[in-house]
Structure formats: structure tokens, C-alpha cells
Design a protein that fits this description.
- This protein is α+β, with helices and mostly antiparallel strands and about 400 residues long.
- It folds into two domains: about 120 residues, SCP2 sterol-binding domain (Nonspecific Lipid-transfer Protein, Chain A, 2-Layer Sandwich), CATH 3.30.1050.10; about 210 residues, q2cbj1_9rhob like domain (Jelly Rolls, Sandwich), CATH 2.60.120.
- It has 13 helices and 17 strands.
- The strands form three sheets. Strands 6, 7, 8, 9, 10, 11, 12, 15 and 17 form a nine-stranded antiparallel beta sheet that branches.
- β2 and β3 form a beta hairpin.
- The longest helix is centred in the first third of the chain and has 27 residues.
- The two termini are about 40 Å apart.
């Protein structure tokens, strides 16, 4: 039932020069996966992309089932400038097209941010051999080979092989009645306490704004450290069994974030649009991790339930947003207080905005153990400080676009 799709080791990340990328990395990738990437480029009608890195300029384009690297950027419809270090991280899947934009490490000199994000699946096909998604690629079968019931809600009394199989096929789970309402009330009080203490730019919270420009804290970072009640619950057998579902040895992250979902938010990272948890990069290093949402208040269609796209963890698609190539239908997971949702880090999901009632949820989860011989390097773009800075990420993304055609919705 493994969901371990890793193909790279963190220990192998190293600085790549522009010369090595142009003379070795790209030619080898084109020889190995050029046809795979060219198919994805043609299906998505992606524009020829030019790169400007220091004094080096080149254009990547395709014709038929071939990809070529041409000197200069005169033919490019999309032009991207970045540093040598950013290129190195991008080529090694340490940061994605979106990840570089979110950390202000790339500029769109010609074309649009939408064009740049749209290239991500083709780059992953070229550099990692991941086929770009095509309609019909993903099917859902139960253990007996029949159609899988994607609306199924599980309890701890259900057979573990069935639960694990559903997670592998669909990329998510909805588990009913894991914790009691009084336990959830206590954790909810802890969230309220830290939300009330939060201050803008404290490095410990995310903020959002309503239509009148009123700012409010919507996420408590490092909540695992702050709530003894939460630590007790996630340390119990009622929660920890989730890490053993797939047999991959998932380990609890010893971290969590407490979220409130207020009404009327129009700006900020509160009601997140469709995205994957590996959308910033590192899919090939940590997918699939498991993200668990503990329903403190429950969530339905009017209080902002979690949306998921079943099977999207098996699809190399563009994120954020819904890739227009996808034929996979979304589901809304309407939870009760004490339920848990689980989704793979490569599963497309979103937070639906609450329309009548706010809600609260805690997100924690499990990560895969390091591969043999691997070790974690310093990761400045994924540090606690970098996580806190995402509160203002929309402004940084907008600043990366220098062309007249700005961000396309």
C-alpha cells in the first residue's frame, strides 16, 4: 500500500552552475525524457520559454516530439530571470515555479505569471520523468477490482487494509469520531487564546483582511509547542495509528498549526485556493507525506469544509488552481467535531470560504523517514521564519511580474 514516490535524496542537493545546467543537466534530461516533456508542452500549448541567468540567456522550446535549447531569448514568448542559485534549486526540484515566485527569487520579464506556473508539469516531466497528466490517466478501484466509493467515511473499527487502499487510490481519508467534543473544545480554547495574543509581523501567526480592510490573525504557527492539550491528543494511539497505515514508516512531525476560518475574508492566506502541499517544490524529496486536519468545530458547506480532488496525488498537474487538463471531480469533506481528514501532500485540496459560520481546525501530520544515507540540510526557504513570511506572500508574487500583462486570474 506504499505511497512513497520519492526519487531524490536531500543529501544530494548541491550548488549547480549555469554551465553545468546547460552543458550536462539539460542535455541528459532531454535525451532521457524529452519526448515525455514535449508531449506535455504540446498538449498545454505552452509558449517558448527564455531564461536569463547572469550573463547566460537561452530558450527552451519544442517541435513535435523534440525539445531543443537555443541560444538567446529573442524567440521566447515568456522570459524568466533568476539567479544561478535559484536555477540550481529549480532544476533539482527544491523549489518549483510557484515556490520561486513565493520567495521572490524569479522575475517574469515577458509573458505572465500564469505562463510561468503553467510550465511546471512539463519541467517535472523533463527533469524527473513524471508524465504530465492526461484525461483518463487516473482510475479508482476497490480491493476487489470494482469501482471505489469516493464518498466513503471511515471509522477506526473499519479494516485497516481497506482504509490504506482507499488512501492510496484516492489520496485522502475522512475519519469519523476520533476525538470527543469536550476535547476539541479545550483545544479550541487554546487556539482562541493565542489568536487573541497574536500581533502583526510577530513571526508566529498569519493574518488576513476583510472587505473593509480590517486585519485579523487567522493561523497560529508552532501550535504544537503552545498547546499541551493538543500534544496529548496527537501523542495518543487514537491519532498515532495513522502513521502506520501505508507501511512506509511515516513519523509524526511534532508540529501543528491552529486555524480559524472567519467570515468575509478577501485578502491573505485564510481560505486557500486549490493547491498541493508540495506545490512550492520538493515533491521528489518528501511525497507523499500525510497532512491531518483535526476538526475542532466540524465543517460543512456553509462553514468552509475542506475540498479535495480524488486521485490528484497521482497526477502531474499545474498548481495552484485546477489544471484545465484534469477530468477529476472534487469532493467536499463535511466533518463533525472530532473527525479527522487526511490528505497526501501531493493531493490537490482547498479551503472553501465559510459563508454562514466560522470554523476552527488544527493541521498536523506525518512525514516519511529519511531514505538510507540521507540527511536533512539547512533549508532556509522552508524554515520557521520562511513559513511566517508567507502571511504576505500575495504581494511578493505580484512583485515578480514586470510585464504589462499582470497576474491572470
Amino acid at each position: 500500500m506504499s505511497i512513497d514516490h520519492r526519487t531524490r535524496r536531500l543529501i544530494d542537493i548541491r550548488p549547480l552552475s549555469v554551465t553545468e545546467v546547460l552543458d550536462t543537466i539539460l542535455p541528459e534530461a532531454i535525451a532521457s525524457h524529452g519526448d515525455l516533456a514535449a508531449r506535455g508542452i504540446a498538449q498545454r500549448a505552452l509558449p517558448a520559454i527564455g531564461f536569463s541567468v547572469g550573463d547566460a540567456e537561452w530558450t527552451l522550446c519544442s517541435s513535435g516530439n523534440r525539445i531543443e535549447v537555443a541560444p538567446g531569448i529573442g524567440r521566447a514568448e515568456l522570459i524568466i530571470s533568476m539567479s544561478e542559485g535559484a536555477l540550481s534549486d529549480f532544476v533539482q526540484d527544491y523549489q518549483s515555479t510557484m515556490g520561486l515566485a513565493m520567495t521572490s527569487r524569479v522575475r517574469v520579464e515577458r509573458g505572465t505569471m500564469d505562463d510561468w506556473i503553467g510550465w511546471e508539469p512539463a519541467f517535472r516531466a523533463l527533469l524527473d520523468g513524471r508524465k504530465t497528466f492526461e484525461p483518463g490517466d487516473v482510475q479508482f478501484l476497490d480491493l476487489d477490482g470494482g469501482p471505489l466509493d469516493l464518498d466513503r467515511v471511515f471509522t477506526p473499527e473499519d479494516e485497516l487494509p481497506e482504509i490504506a487502499h482507499f488512501l492510496r487510490e484516492a489520496g485522502f481519508l475522512h475519519l469519523r469520531g476520533i476525538f470527543d467534543p469536550d476535547e476539541m473544545e479545550g483545544v479550541g480554547d487554546d487556539i482562541d487564546h493565542h489568536i487573541a495574543r497574536a500581533k502583526p509581523d510577530d513571526g508566529d501567526s498569519w493574518w488576513a483582511e476583510d472587505a473593509d480592510g480590517n486585519a485579523q490573525a487567522v493561523r497560529v504557527l508552532n501550535f504544537f509547542e503552545k498547546s499541551e492539550r493538543l500534544r496529548s491528543l496527537v501523542g495518543s494511539d487514537r491519532y498515532q495509528w495513522l502513521g502506520g497505515l501505508t507501511g512506509d514508516g511515516h513519523q509524526h512531525r511534532l508540529s501543528a498549526e491552529g486555524l480559524v476560518k472567519p467570515l468575509g475574508i478577501v485578502k491573505g492566506l485564510s481560505d486557500l485556493p486549490w493547491h498541493k502541499d508540495c506545490g512550492q517544490g520538493r515533491h521528489s524529496y518528501h511525497c507523499n507525506a500525510l497532512t491531518c486536519g483535526i476538526s475542532i468545530t466540524g465543517a460543512d458547506r456553509v462553514s468552509g469544509a475542506l475540498g479535495v480532488v480524488p486521485g490528484s496525488h497521482r497526477a502531474n498537474v499545474r498548481v495552484p488552481g485546477r489544471d484545465p487538463m484534469m477530468d477529476l471531480k472534487s469532493r467536499m469533506l463535511e466533518t463533525q467535531t472530532g473527525d479527522i481528514t487526511v490528505h497526501c501532500s501531493d493531493t490537490l485540496h482547498r479551503a472553501h470560504p465559510p459563508t454562514e459560520r466560522p470554523r476552527k481546525v488544527v493541521y498536523s501530520g506525518f512525514e516519511l523517514p529519511l531514505l538510507p544515507g540521507d540527511e536533512k540540510p539547512d533549508q532556509p526557504h522552508y524554515s520557521r521564519e520562511a513559513r511566517a513570511e508567507l502571511s504576505n506572500v500575495e504581494d511578493r508574487i505580484a512583485a515578480t511580474v514586470t510585464s504589462i500583462d499582470r497576474l491572470r486570474k
